[in-house]
TrEMBL record:
Pfam family, one: His_Phos_1
InterPro entries, per database record: His_Pase_superF_clade-1, His_PPase_superfam
Region (Disordered): 9-30
Protein name: Phosphohistidine phosphatase
Compositionally biased region (Basic and acidic residues): 10-30
SUPFAM superfamilies cross-referenced by the UniProt entry: Phosphoglycerate mutase-like
Gene3D superfamilies: Phosphoglycerate mutase-like (3.40.50.1240)
Amino acid sequence: MRRLMLLRHAKTEHDAPSGRDQDRRLDHRGHGDATEIGRWIARHPPFPDTVLVSHAIRAHQTWEVAWEAMKDLVPKPVVELMPELYGADAAELLQIIRHASEADPRRLLLVGHNPGMHELALALTGGGDAAGRKALADNLPTSGLAILDFAIDDWEDVAFRRGKLVSFVSPKLLKHASDE
């Protein structure tokens, strides 16, 4: 069994002072949302063994803020910054996941960007949580987290429509659930 967690970066400023998209930073809401998702991850094991993070500042900040919120409760994973995650489409992301077989983590977290992350989550999902699938069909929002399980022994065997959506959460969904 392998678990894949797909986390979209948190909410950002509209423009970076440098003018480069990769340099956009989290805004105030983004910091709060990344903290909330980090706390949620800390309350819902199993935890990632390896985290692959886009080199874009907003993705790296999302991971750092989320990790700060969970680090006292979660074993420290291996973290790698990967420029390849920036702008990657679903097929490219799938190849990155398949290459995880070299390190062979049982649980892998990717922190990246739309539209690739959303397209990948949709393409990999072949069943699982019906309400989560319905919510995910609309969007993978900022700080959105899709968790999929695969009945495989090697990341090389990850394929479209073979994942079971275990959970889909976002700060908005978490807030809505707490208001009920």
